[in-house]
Structures are given as structure tokens and as C-alpha cells.
Amino acid sequence: MVFDSTRFDMARYVRRTYCSWEVAGWRSLLVQRFEHVPLVEDMELPGTADLHLVVPVAGRAVMETRSGDRAQRSTWVPGRPELAIPGRPILRRYRADGAMRLGEPRTGEYKISLSSPK
């Protein structure tokens, strides 16, 4: 559901803890929550089918994102949103200060996919 690709091994990097399609029955808006592993060397993300708004809610990491020949370094902190542009594959690596979540069971990262009705 995050990516339209069977080649991406999501379980290697994240654990989905919430999905609005499964829990709330929503179809026009997808809200998901993930808990990330604390260290990733080379995570190749295929281009998404829809625009993704990513809002970290717990954890802190130094993130490097590469798209084509351009690399960008940033700090991933709670409350700083980021957009994933459709159709643009990226390579990501990061090191977190621990698990990217708090001690509460309902924390992690929310990904919101906005898609037009089919």
C-alpha cells in the first residue's frame, strides 16, 4: 500500500502499526503509522503512485536522501513534515538516536496518501 511495487521489502525497515483502510474503512484518504528500525544503510524506495505527506511524531535521525545525482542531508524530528513526490524513486540512509518512536504504543510515523477517485 505504501508503494506500488512488489520489489520493496517493507518489513526489513518498518513495521506498520495502523492503516485507515483496514481500521476505519477509508478509501479516498490513506493514513498509516510506522515504527522504523534505527539504522538503515541503503534503502531503495520505488516511486510512489500518490503524493505522500510524511509526519514524524517520535524519534530523531540524521537522514540522507538521494534522488538522481542530488543528495540532501536533513534532521528527521517530530513535527517536521516532508513530501514524497509521486513517481520519483529515492535512495535513503539514516541513523537514529534509537527506535523512531516513543514508549507509547500509538507512536511512529504517519504517512498520508492523497489519491484521486478512480
Spatial strand order of the main sheet: 1-2-9-4-7
Q: Roughly what percent helix? A: under 10%
Describe the largest sheet.
5 strands, antiparallel
What's the Cα radius of gyration?
14 Å
Shape: globular
Number of H/I helices: 1
* First and last CA, distance: 16 Å
| SSE topology string | EHEEEEEEEE
Unreliable residue stretches:
101-109
Average pLDDT confidence is: 77
Number of strands: 9
Structural class: mainly beta
Strand content: over 45%
Characterise the protein shown here.
The chain has 1 helix and 9 strands; from the N terminus they run βαββββββββ. By secondary structure, it is mostly beta strands. Strands 1-2-9-4-7 form a 5-stranded antiparallel β-sheet. A 4-stranded antiparallel β-sheet has the order 3-8-5-6, with no helix packed on it. Strand 5 and strand 6 form a beta hairpin. The model is unreliable at 101-109 (pLDDT under 50).
Properties at a glance:
mainly beta; 118 residues; 1 helix; 4-stranded antiparallel beta sheet; 9 strands
Concise synopsis of the structure shown:
Helices cover 3% and strands 48% of the residues. By secondary structure, the protein is mainly beta.
Secondary-structure map:
Blueprint: E1 14-19, H1 20-23, E2 29-36, E3 39-45, E4 51-56, E5 61-67, E6 70-76, E7 82-84, E8 90-96, E9 109-114
Antiparallel strand pairs: 1-2, 2-9, 3-8, 4-7, 4-9, 5-6, 5-8
